[in-house]
Amino acid sequence: MSFATPTVVISKCLGFAECRYNGDIIQDRFVQQLTPFVRVISVCPEMEIGLGVPRETIRLVKEGEDIRLVQPSTGRDLTEPMKQFSLSFLSSLGDIDGFILKSRSPTCGTKDVKVYAGVEKTPVIGKGVGLFAQAVSGTFSHAAIEEEGRLTNFAIREHFLTKLFTLALFRDIKKERSMQKLVEFHAQHKYLFMAYNQTRLKQLGNIVANRERLPIEQVLAEYEAALYSLFAKRARRNSHINVCQHMMGYFKNELSPQEKTYFLELLEKYREQKLPLSSITSVLKSWVIRYGNEYLLQQRYFEPYPPALVDMSDSAKGKETE
Ligand code: SF4
User: For labelling, which of 68, 116, 240, 310 has a CA lying 20 to 30 Å from the CA of 194?
Assistant: First the structure.
């Protein structure tokens, strides 16, 4: 199976430059694994607005209803320069499939960034979003956006990679402006999309059917919008079970009663979070190969992103929430 090459914007301190406030660089395992498979654009917004390395720390401060980005040691308010840089940088980028941003940074953090009551020695009064990260989700709301810290969680990483590589593949299809390519793309993703959202799958199917004979540009634009909505949330465990049962249905005449019982037991263990999904899909894939089911063989559900990126490791934060 071939894969598209996604374009990913990554915080520069995650392995690309010693640009943290104290001159540090962070070697992130996932970023290192991913880099050979993507086109990387690395950026350090704090350096881009003229802060050097090393530099005095900056923080988010609540001022009335506003959140400001300030440097306590100098009293400088960096809110406007950071907003201006973020907007001009992001609008210069063109097509981007994903972002990996440094967690907890008042610039790059996508959530849980400390917000202080004031510039001086003051307590933390809440959690917010870094200014650059805010601009990213405003400008590229459809993209796969994550922090390096959260990507140690297996389920979050799985969703991120699936979304990233599927969006990049769709972008390639879009460039070709071919109805036939779109039909093939949709057919290959049927079960993956079913796992994500059945309603959207139906909507995408109707768009591809193009009963009104709309021009290809309009079909692609509608398909793209529905695809973005489909990926807005992670696929749920029950939806995966539904997909696997559907696929098992293809082999109902070939499988012995014992094989069927065993498979349903595996599904139950997956439901109870005692088995990874890959244990189930491996069994399914072996049937697909054994019985030569060409339609299922081309399903991206089995391999939505390069297999070399499959990594079963999971952080302590890794309990799946649905
Ligand atoms: S977190 Fe963002 S702003 Fe801070 S050093 Fe890393 S890239 Fe630069």
Answer: 310
**Nearest partner of 44 among 68, 25, 19, 22, judged by Cα:** 19
- Between the CA of 111 and the centroid of ligand 1 the distance, in Å, is 15
Asked if 83 and 60 count as a contact pair (C-beta separation under 8 A), the reply is no
Can you give the pTM of this predicted structure? 0.95
Query: What residue type is assigned to position 94 of the chain?
Result: G
Closest CA to 169 of 190, 188, 152: 188
Distance from C-alpha of 197 to C-alpha of 189, rounded to nearest angstrom: 12
DSSP 301: G
Residue of the nearest CA to atom 4 in ligand 1? Answer: 20
In the chain, the amino acid numbered 292 is G
- Give the integer Cα–Cα distance in Å for 100 and 133: 10
Strands 39-43 and 7-11: parallel
Of the candidates 30, 29, 5, 27, which has an alpha carbon nearest to the alpha carbon of residue 16? 27
Is 97 in contact with 6 (CB distance < 8 Å)? yes
pLDDT digits (tens, 9 = 90+) for 202-241: 999 999 999 999 999 999 999 999 999 999 999 999 999 9
> Cβ contacts of residue 291 below 8 Å, gap of 6+?
250, 251, 254
Domain boundaries, the chain: 7-152, 237-299
Confidence at 56, pLDDT banded by 50, 70, 90: very high
